[in-house]
């Protein structure tokens, strides 16, 4: 019976590219007239890939992510997520993990994770079960009853990831999720994220300032230029998986990081 | 030698005040007209308990209705003014400058309009409590972290869901602080107005007995008001603790946010 | 919205308010006995401002307010600084102060009357009493607002105690000190008004209470306008100073 279900045309038509951006441009109204923020952005992220976007501050990385999440509308161009355009937030297709402080302090960890399901009026038992499973996935089983202020920075981001995944969206967007963490926690969290990614086979678009983090995590790194943001370079990361901390000390790793750094440095 | 804990010292001070209240008039340091002994005051309060009880009921009724008005209208107006940027820029500065006016000067107008019964007290205390509730609700809504709204929107929250599940819970701490202050102010407003012009209530008992120089009965009424105010404060703090279990380091935030609205409490 | 538009709309709101105040009683929609038309109130205002007894009452009230202010602010300020500087002292008294806030201070008026009578001193004493607690709290908040980092930096450059006071404490506390002055005046003015309305033979508070009891509403409204304008004028004055002092603050 399962075979029949897989032959269902709708499933078969699932696109090979989870994220497809064509000729995206964005202009916002600044104090002194229109300011071009993004221009000529085209990118394709195949299903299951881990793509990292790096670039100088103010290059529009976050704007791009907001548009992929349907939180902001672009001036021109098209965005297809999972084969369909996205105009408003759709948590069944896209989960978002923010930099920090986006857990609701008045809800416990498990209530935070089930929040998207509450919005969809899912039955209590079902959503609690899903939320517990997600907390388990991110390594926080047993912490569901804690309030955010009772969790460490790393644990909060784990909850945040669990919340992003709870509706099982094919795409997970992450906006500098580990930027506020200390170096050690950040490394651990990167490793954990790769583990979760390999277990769930999501498509991930990840924004960071850290080149080491970018090379360590990505299948492909996209380098963006300063305003107006455009894609300068696409750097495939051919390091084998699973990634290990030891790889960071290799010449290949260093060369990749250097190539990205040169790109960013050369942007005006 | 270690110093006794602040709490112990506070209790000692409280005890000493009570002892002094009893001893000073008994030892003849102060005439009983100025300060009747505590025991005598309590005895009067007990023997006149039905009179004081009836007056307290009147006062509590006025407080309850005024609080309902102050909090209901205050939260509604605060939510509108805090939520709509245009209204906020237009009106908030006006409200905070109106706040400088001693509201008590309006009371003669209210007695002229509504008579000296409960209505004028309710109107006056309602206006008195309205301002802090409105200002802190507006502040609570204005200072909600953008991140919460963005996160909720990314999860597909509709506007009603955003209001019910994010904006309201996120502004509860500030609104509660405003309710505590607004409630305290409505109590103050009712007592002040009863003292000024009225024919019933606890404040009236203070004034009436003062006029006939019956000090024990004045102080008995003062005790009732003190107990009422402190009981209200304890009640609200308990509600706050229950509601805000999720807040970080409850003690510190509660004293910090109390400092801000406390500045608004006149009289 | 531009600044000019905001001001224009505010003026428009005020005009509508005053227009309604004028038209509604004249048209008989509200009882002109209860709400005399605005023009009548303005005429009465002009008349009472010219009266010697009103001006005398104004002088008495102003003197009470100023003297109570001059006593309460330095005294409360000193206690507040002490409470902030001495942790033990602060830990004892601060929670007590929070309770004092929720108590109607007017219930102690009879004691002030018994001790001081119903004259000038009683008004000053009661107003001082009703103001001092807020001054204590604001002053200790002002001291605590001085970032210890700044003090540490100054100390590391070898600043003396006097220099730290002059160069760090005073400038950092300035905006809050002005705020304290502004808020204290609100409390102080309210205290004087309550005392005058409660039991008195002089002062503007006494006059408006009398007008209210005798149903002289044009006079009552005129008196309320005078008091409200005075209160707001002082408030705005201090706020202007505050805005100047805090331009460097975020």
Quick overview:
Chain A is α/β, with parallel strands linked by helices and 268 residues long.
Q: Could you explain how this protein is built, in words?
A:
The complex is a heterotrimer of chains A (268), B (267) and C (250). Chain A is of the alpha/beta class and 268 residues long. Chain A folds into 2 domains: 16-93 and 171-181 and 188-268, P-loop containing nucleotide triphosphate hydrolases (Rossmann fold, 3-Layer(aba) Sandwich); 100-168, no CATH class. Chain A is 36% helix and 25% strand. Chain A is built from 9 helices and 10 strands. Chain A has helices at residues 2-7, 9-12, 61-68, 109-119, 124-137, 153-165, 183-200, 211-217, 251-266, and strands spanning 17-30, 33-46, 50-54, 76-81, 84-85, 94-97, 171-175, 203-207, 220-224, 231-236. In chain A, strand 7, helix 7 and strand 8 (203-207) form a beta-alpha-beta unit. In chain A, helix 4 packs across helix 5 and helix 4 (109-119) runs parallel beside helix 6. With 267 residues, chain B is mainly alpha-helical. Chain B has one domain: MetI-like (MetI-like fold, Orthogonal Bundle), CATH 1.10.3720. Chain B has 11 helices and no strands. In chain B, 48% of the residues are buried. Residues 249-267 of chain B have low confidence and may be disordered. With 250 residues, chain C is mostly helical. Chain C has one domain: MetI-like fold (Orthogonal Bundle), CATH 1.10.3720.10. The longest helix of chain C is centred in the C-terminal third of the chain and has 38 residues, at 161-198. In chain C, 38% of the residues are buried. The chains are: A alpha/beta (268), B mainly alpha (267), C mainly alpha (250). The interface between B and C is large, with 59 and 65 residues.
């Amino acid at each position: 019976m399962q075979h029949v279900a897989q032959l269902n045309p709708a499933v078969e038509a699932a696109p090979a590219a989870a994220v497809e951006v064509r000729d995206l441009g964005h202009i916002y109204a600044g104090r002194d007239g229109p300011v071009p923020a993004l221009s000529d952005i085209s990118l394709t992220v195949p299903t299951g890939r881990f793509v990292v976007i790096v670039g100088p501050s103010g290059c529009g990385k976050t704007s791009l992510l907001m548009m992929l999440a349907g939180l902001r509308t672009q001036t021109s161009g098209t965005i297809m997520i999972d084969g369909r355009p996205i105009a408003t937030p759709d948590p069944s297709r896209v989960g978002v993990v923010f930099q920090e402080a986006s857990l609701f302090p008045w809800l416990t960890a498990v209530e935070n994770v089930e929040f998207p399901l509450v919005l969809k009026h899912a039955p209590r038992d079902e959503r609690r079960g899903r939320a517990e499973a997600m907390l388990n996935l991110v390594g926080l089983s047993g912490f569901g009853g804690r309030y955010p202020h009772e969790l460490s920075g790393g644990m909060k981001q784990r909850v945040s990831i669990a919340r992003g995944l709870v509706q099982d969206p094919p795409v997970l967007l992450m906006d500098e999720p580990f930027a506020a963490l200390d170096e050690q926690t950040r490394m651990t969290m990167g490793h954990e994220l790769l583990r979760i990614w390999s277990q769930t086979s999501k498509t991930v678009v990840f924004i960071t300032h850290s080149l080491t983090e970018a090379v360590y995590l990505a299948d492909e790194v996209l380098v963006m230029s300063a305003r107006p943001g455009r894609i300068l370079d696409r750097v495939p990361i051919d390091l084998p998986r699973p990634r290990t901390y030891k790889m960071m000390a290799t010449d290949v790793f260093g060369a990749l990081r250097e190539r990205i750094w040169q790109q960013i440095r050369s942007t005006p | 030698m270690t110093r006794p804990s602040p709490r112990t010292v506070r209790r000692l001070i409280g005890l000493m005040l009570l002892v002094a209240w009893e001893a000073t008039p008994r030892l003849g340091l102060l005439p009983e007209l100025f300060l009747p002994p505590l025991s005598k005051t309590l005895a009067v309060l007990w023997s006149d308990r039905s009179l004081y009880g009836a007056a307290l009921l009147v006062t509590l009724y006025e407080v309850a209705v005024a609080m309902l008005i102050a909090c209901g209208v205050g939260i509604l107006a605060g939510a509108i003014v805090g939520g709509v940027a245009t209204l906020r820029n237009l009106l908030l500065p006006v409200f905070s400058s109106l706040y400088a006016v001693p509201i008590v000067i309006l009371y003669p107008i209210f007695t002229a309009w509504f008579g000296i019964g409960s209505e004028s007290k309710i109107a006056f205390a309602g206006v008195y409590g309205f301002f802090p509730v409105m200002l802190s609700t507006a502040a609570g809504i204005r200072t909600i972290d953008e991140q919460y709204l963005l996160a909720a929107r990314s999860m597909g929250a509709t506007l009603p869901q955003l209001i019910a599940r994010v904006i309201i819970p996120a502004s509860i701490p500030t609104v509660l602080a405003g309710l505590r202050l607004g409630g305290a102010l409505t109590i103050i407003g009712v007592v002040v107005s009863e003292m000024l012009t009225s024919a019933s209530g606890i404040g009236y008992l203070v004034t009436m007995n003062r006029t006939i120089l019956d000090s024990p009965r004045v102080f008995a009424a003062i005790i009732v008001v003190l107990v009422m105010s402190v009981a209200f404060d304890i009640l609200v703090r308990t509600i706050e603790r229950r509601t805000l279990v999720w807040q970080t380091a409850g003690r510190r935030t509660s004293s910090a946010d109390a400092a801000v609205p406390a500045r608004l409490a006149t009289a | 919205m531009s600044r000019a538009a905001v001001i224009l709309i505010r003026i428009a709101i005020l005009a509508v308010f005053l227009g309604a105040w004028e038209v509604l009683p004249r048209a008989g929609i509200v009882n002109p006995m209860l709400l005399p038309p605005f023009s009548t109130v303005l005429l009465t205002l002009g008349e009472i401002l010219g009266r010697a007894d009103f001006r005398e009452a104004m002088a008495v009230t102003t003197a009470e307010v100023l003297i109570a202010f001059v006593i309460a602010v330095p005294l409360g300020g000193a206690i507040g600084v002490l409470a902030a500087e001495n942790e033990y002292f602060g830990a004892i008294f601060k929670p007590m102060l929070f309770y004092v806030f929720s108590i109607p201070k007017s219930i102690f008026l009879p004691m002030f009357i018994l001790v001081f009578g119903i004259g000038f001193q009683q008004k000053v004493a009661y107003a001082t009493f009703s103001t001092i607690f807020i001054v204590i709290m604001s002053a200790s908040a002002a001291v605590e607002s001085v970032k210890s980092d700044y003090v540490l930096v100054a100390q590391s450059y070898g600043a003396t105690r006097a220099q730290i006071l002059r160069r760090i404490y005073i400038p950092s506390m300035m905006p809050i000190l002005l705020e304290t002055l502004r808020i204290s005046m609100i409390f102080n003015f309210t205290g004087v008004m309550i005392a005058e309305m409660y039991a008195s033979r002089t002062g503007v508070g006494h006059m408006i209470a009398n007008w209210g009891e005798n149903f002289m509403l044009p006079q009552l409204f005129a008196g309320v306008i005078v008091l409200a304008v005075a209160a707001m004028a002082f408030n705005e004055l201090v706020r202007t100073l505050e805005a100047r002092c805090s331009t460097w603050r975020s």
